[in-house]
Design brief:
alpha+beta, elongated, 298 residues, five-stranded mixed beta sheet
């Protein structure tokens, strides 16, 4: 049974669920998960959690992402990207490189975004995109998101287009960010392409396509191309257990913190390994009980 992280370069016109479905057919296994959705028209890094690694879906410590986005100024659409229905045009809008660079700092740090109607967010038990397809628009509360960096990579003044590299936290809608930048510039803007270049600490260099995965499976080498599960948790310090401690830990026994010499006074979560350097999972140091317990094992 395969286990680990399979980084895929998602093609256009595939949802994240489509990726899972196709890989289930290639790998002949059901236990797969992904680390975060990408819009169907987006491409790029989509880490797939294979086998027991799928248990990490709800506890990923590194949810930072980086995108390369292209934007067209002067129009808006109902989806905030070029594939939607045009809702407005701004023939008098003219963006210069200097003006664009001047507004970008406004969108750094913790900012508020109103999620687009064409999104998977649920309000009142219904997905927003379902309501949008029915022509229904509902009020969406603004949400706080985090944008760490925006770098202008290219600008075409004649075409009124730009390419931006954006680093951000979980839940940030890039097309909404670009639409808001367009408003700040006195008109509107739509996203024309989006590629996720990094996610969960992995980059495009780590990624494969479907054809490569099929080749690995036929050659019996897929496991060698999977990234070990513990790489998802590299930001946590390491804690080694003895043979006896590891056996107790696997059985759910809580270990006295005083017996764990590698435990730090103010650190709660750890990557846990057995005496043979085998990765066991993520453990939690409960400072109230002074006991070390399983957070999740793999």
């Amino acid at each position: 049974m395969y286990q680990g992280v399979l980084c895929m370069n998602k093609p256009q016109n595939f949802t994240s669920f489509d990726m899972i479905g196709k890989l289930r057919g290639i790998l002949h296994m059901k236990k797969l998960g992904h680390t975060g959705t990408l819009d169907p028209m987006a491409t790029g890094v989509l880490p797939i959690l294979v086998g027991r690694a799928a248990r990490a879906c709800d506890m990923l410590p590194d949810e930072n992402k980086t995108y390369r986005a292209e934007v067209q100024f002067g129009i808006t659409t109902d989806t905030e990207d070029i594939w939607g229905k045009q809702t407005a045009a701004f023939p008098d809008m003219y963006v210069t490189e200097e003006a664009l660079k001047a507004v970008l700092p406004r969108f750094l740090g913790k900012i508020l975004q109103i999620p687009p109607m064409y999104s998977a967010i649920s309000i009142g038990g219904k997905r927003l995109y379902t309501l949008a397809r029915q022509g229904i628009e509902v009020e969406r509360p603004a949400r706080q998101v985090r944008v760490d960096a925006i770098q202008l990579e290219a600008f075409d003044e004649a075409a009124q287009t730009a390419q931006l590299s954006i680093s951000c936290g979980k839940g940030t809608y890039i097309r909404t960010l670009l639409a808001d930048i367009g408003i700040a510039l006195g008109g509107g803007a739509v996203m024309t392409s989006l590629c996720r270049t990094a996610a969960c600490g992995f980059t495009l260099r780590d990624c494969y396509d479907f054809a490569q995965v099929e080749t690995f499976c036929k050659a019996g080498t897929l496991q060698a191309h999977l990234i070990p599960t513990d790489h998802l948790f590299l930001m946590y310090p390491v804690l080694h257990l003895s043979v006896q401690q590891a056996q107790q830990y696997r059985n759910g026994v809580k270990l006295p913190l005083g017996q764990l010499t590698e435990a730090f006074p103010h650190q709660d979560l750890y990557r846990v390994y057995g005496s043979q350097e085998e990765f066991l999972g993520v453990g939690f140091a409960n400072r109230e009980t002074e006991l070390f317990q399983v957070r999740k094992n793999f």
